[in-house]
Description:
The protein is an alpha+beta fold. 30% of the residues lie in helices and 24% in strands. The chain contains four helices and four strands. The strands form two sheets. It has a two-stranded antiparallel ribbon. A hairpin with a 2-residue loop joins strand 1 (2-9) and strand 2.
Amino acid sequence: VYHAVYEKTATGWQEVLSPGLYAPDDVPAIEGQGWTGIGSGWKAYADSLDQRYGEQLLQRFPEAYPRATAIARLALPGFEAGEGRPAHEAAPIYIRNKVALTTSERAAKAGA
């Protein structure tokens, strides 16, 4: 399960738990009530996630996926505040940073 926790504040979204990849039964605990579960993990692993978070969740949206328009809306306040960066400085956040072997790792494995 790709997992992260954010809280909306008066000044924007604040990271509570940074993004990570977890087995459904090993997602981190969160404190407090009134959280919203979003994403396909709620469709695939509803039983495990509901057991873990129980009454802490106010609502779930298992069919929700990130959309460019939503990301742009979230980024707009920072952009308007002068926090924009040139496109060449953009870099993705790799949650699964080791999803494939490099060419040399494949060659070494084939020779083993």
